[in-house]
Every structure is written in structure tokens, then in C-alpha cells.
Structure to design on (208 residues):
């Protein structure tokens, strides 16, 4: 059973925490990352790209010129895809790009991602994370003490916290997530994962 130090906001060790083997000490199955991340990215696609075919483009009802005698190729409509202003051949239409991945696969991929972060020593557990007011400067000071000031950092808290979210949203390299929103893409994207003790408990409960 892996154990980690629990830090306060000043990066001083205040306690030890034993992590659940089933969540933070599993086999790292990197081949699962591809499918789960692709699924997450596909769900974000709007799928609203749309073009008009020759039957949908306005105009072109009259034959542009007579069939024979002009020296040009015959043409029945000025809205042919071969003409400027004509329709589009096999153009995109609104569609849904999303697809499903089995729940057990998503869980296994997230466990693998968390285990990978722990083994790479890129997981920091805090006893709690709170600030008294909405102030980016206060939040930056905490990041500096944790050594995350110049790193891509994902911070996971047990539930939404307005002070923390508004104080961190202007910091380009930082993302704040409630525990229920933890996902494979963000865990892999950010260099450092900072999790509070209550959030760890929620994550273990959801994944074990």
C-alpha cells in the first residue's frame, strides 16, 4: 500500500496518508489512454460544419448556354460542383462525433493515469486548500510555496469553491477541477497533480 506525505499550503509535512492500492498502485495500461482521450476529445467536437450540395445551392435553374456549337463542354446548370458558386461534392454535414467507451475501461485508464503520476513523483497531497478571498496574488503565493509556479498544474478539490476557481482562472498553466470532474486527459496533460485529502477520499470511493 503506497503512502504519501500530506503537506499544508506552506509545503510543510503535517501527516502521512496511505493510498488505496486499487486506485494508486495498479498496472499502468498506457494503451487505454488512447481510446479514452480520443473519446473525450471527440465529445468536444461541435460537428456543426455544413456545406450545400448542387441541389441545395440557390439558382442554376436555367441552362447556361446551348448544348452544341459553342466549343465548350456541355453544361446543364451553373451550380455544378465544377463551377465557381456551385455546390460542394461530398462536403461535411452536421454530425455527432462522439462515441462510447466502456465504464470499466474509463476507470482502468484513470487508475493507470493516477498510478503513473504517483510513480513519477508528480502527485502532491494537501491537507486542505482554501483562501479567504478572491485574489490571484494569494493563490500564486501558494503555488510558489508548492513549487508549482512554473509548471502545468492540475488542482483537484472535493467540490467547487468560488474563491479558488476565480482566483486561479487567470493563471494560464493552472486548472482547477472538482473531484467528480477528474479525467484522464487532464491528468496526462498537466505536469503536476495537486489533490486535497478530502478529494483523494472521493476519488478512491468512486474508483475502488
Amino acid at each position: 500500500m503506497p503512502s504519501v506525505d500530506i503537506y499544508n499550503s506552506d509545503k510543510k509535512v503535517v501527516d502521512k496518508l496511505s493510498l488505496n492500492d486499487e486506485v494508486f498502485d495498479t498496472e499502468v495500461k498506457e494503451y487505454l489512454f488512447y481510446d479514452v482521450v480520443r473519446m473525450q476529445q471527440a465529445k468536444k467536437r461541435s460537428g456543426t460544419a455544413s456545406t450545400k450540395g448542387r441541389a441545395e445551392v440557390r439558382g442554376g435553374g436555367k441552362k447556361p448556354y446551348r448544348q452544341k456549337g459553342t466549343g465548350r463542354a456541355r453544361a446543364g446548370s451553373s451550380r455544378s460542383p465544377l463551377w465557381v458558386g456551385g455546390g460542394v461534392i461530398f462536403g461535411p454535414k452536421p454530425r455527432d462525433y462522439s462515441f462510447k467507451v466502456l465504464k470499466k475501461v474509463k476507470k482502468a485508464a484513470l487508475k493507470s493515469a493516477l498510478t503513473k503520476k504517483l510513480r513519477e513523483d508528480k502527485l502532491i497531497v494537501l491537507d486542505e486548500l482554501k483562501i479567504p478571498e478572491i485574489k490571484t496574488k494569494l493563490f500564486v503565493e501558494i503555488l510558489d510555496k508548492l513549487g508549482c509556479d512554473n509548471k502545468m498544474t492540475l488542482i483537484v478539490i472535493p467540490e467547487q469553491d468560488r474563491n479558488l476557481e476565480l482566483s486561479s482562472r487567470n493563471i494560464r498553466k493552472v486548472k482547477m477541477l472538482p473531484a467528480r470532474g477528474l479525467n484522464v486527459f487532464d491528468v496526462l496533460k498537466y505536469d503536476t497533480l495537486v489533490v486535497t485529502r478530502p478529494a483523494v477520499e472521493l476519488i478512491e470511493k468512486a474508483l475502488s
In short: The chain has two domains: 3-46+99-207, 51-91. The chain has a mean pLDDT of 93.
